[in-house]
Amino acid sequence: MMYHIPGVLTADELHQMAEDVNRAPWIDGRATVGAQGAQVKNNQQIDTHSPLYAALQGRVLRALNQHSLFFAAALPKTLSTPLFNRYQQQETYGFHVDGAVRSHPQSGWMRTDLSATLFLSDPESYDGGELVVNDTYGQHSVKLPAGDLVLYPSSSLHCVTPVTRGVRIASFLWIQSMIRDDKRRAMLFDLDRNIQTLKARHGESEEVLSLLNLYHNLLREWSEI
Ligand code: NI
User: Fold this and answer.
1) Distance, CA 117 to ligand 1 centroid (Å)?
2) Which residues, other chains included, contact 188 with Cβ-Cβ below 8 Å and sequence gap of 6+?
3) Is the CB of residue 20 less than 8 Å from the CB of residue 53?
4) How far apart are the C-alpha atoms of 20 and 27, rounded to whole Å?
5) pTM of the model
6) How confident is the model at residue 48 (pLDDT cuts 50, 70, 90)?
7) CA-closest candidate to residue 18, choices 129, 169, 148, 125
8) 55 CA to middle of ligand 1, Å?
9) Residue pLDDT, tens place only, 122-179
10) Distance, CA 159 to ligand 1 centroid (Å)?
């Protein structure tokens, strides 16, 4: 299942981030990829040793931790440290696999259940640069407004098509979810959204309370924390 999470960054946050990202030191994107990825990856990343990078990734994490829709869809246990990439002048990242496990500064190791791309460039400002994800329902092409995020299963093959005009900048990260199984996570998200809609439409009721109890009991049953 893929999810579009709008408004992760406000217009002000986005503006500030765009300025800082332009001042950041960019290096060859192959610095952070395995052997398979290195053959098809051609882009740049912000140098993770720079002080500006530390501030930028912290801002992405803070925004995600405050976003209720992101929380409901991902049910995150561990977030990887966000990275930043840039594509311009025909740069591309061919179809590849994201590694199943990654080292994490606090958790030691984390499993990648979900991949997330936070778009930072206005989609009108560049051509190409679509994120293409293959899943069991076919091929999906994603290009979102700046400040919006797409969440997709890390188990899917995916690529970024060549950028033929302008510059595409994004932040990306991986998530280990409390709910490993995509189908269970999708059902919980569906239930959660319907409870929120019922509550907004009809206010608190015994039925809403009972459904909320069901949601938490399922989460208790299935979560690994
Ligand atoms: Ni990837």
Assistant:
1) 9
2) 75, 179, 215, 218, 219, 222
3) no
4) 15
5) 0.94
6) very high
7) 169
8) 23
9) 999 999 999 999 988 889 999 999 999 999 999 999 999 999 999 999 999 999 999 9
10) 7
Ligand 1 centroid, distance to 212 Cα (angstroms): 35
3-state secondary structure the chain: CCEEECCCCCHHHHHHHHHHHHHCCEEEHHHHCCHHHHHHEECEEECCCCHHHHHHHHHHHHHHHCCHHHHHHHCEEEECCCEEEEEECCCEEEEECCCCEEEECCCEEEECCEEEEEECCCHHHCEECCEEEEECCEEEEECCCCCCEEEEECCCCEEECCEEECEEEEEEEEEEECCCCHHHHHHHHHHHHHHHHHHHHHCCCHHHHHHHHHHHHHHHHHCCC
Ligand 1 centroid to Cα of residue 146, in Å, is: 19
CA of 138 to the centre of ligand 1 (A): 17
Q: Within 13 Å of residue 204, how many CA atoms lie on the same side as its CB?
A: 1
